[in-house]
Sequence to fold (239 residues):
Amino acid sequence: MSRQQLSLTSRQQHILWATIRHYIATAEPVGSKALVQEYDLSVSPATIRSCMSMLEKVGLLYQPHTSAGRVPSDSGYRTYVDQLIQPSETLSQYVENLLADKLNWEEAKFEVLLRDAAQILATVSGYIALITFPDNRTTRLRHLQLMHLELGQVMLIIVTDSYETQSVLMNLPHSEDDNTVDESIVERELKILSNFLNSKLRGRTLTELEKLDWSELDREFVRYADFLSNLLTELTRRT
Fold:
């Protein structure tokens, strides 16, 4: 059962809240006896055990061992954050203003923004803040774009399925005719190449791209370019 389909009673919410709070404080599996002693739940241990069993069935708690108490699952933590915590509007606004003031949104790289945000949140909360990055072995290409810059340079912009953006600056091959080349032609050719690469590479992992046979891709692009050239010639002839 997915988290969106769950409809917890107030008692179930209270027991889930108490279980997660106790586990955060002790890092030990939580049993009904501990909840009775530490929290004013106004129910018997048997009722708590029955409720915890139900929460386990829907995936919010689990037992690491048969004889152990329960611990929160990932879905349990998410339900705790989304539904059971009452955020402080004053604190939320303070953190939002702090992030807006301290983070360099315009120039900093994605990794730097995450690192600085983690440092700010750790300072505000008094807890350790950890950040994780997508695994490049499973990260997939969502989109790429080749942009023509000045002085014979091209920027390759890559967007992954986790919406991380990377860019690489490259120099175009130099020739004696560079001064006479129409920039609009270069931009049009780069757009054609971008469309071709997107059609061939979109959805592939970055690891797959490293092992790609680029010579075969180059031959495919020649055929692709020839097809477009013939198509445009035919359209021009008909008009």
Notes: The two ends are 60 Å apart (CA to CA). The first strand starts at residue 61 and ends at 62.
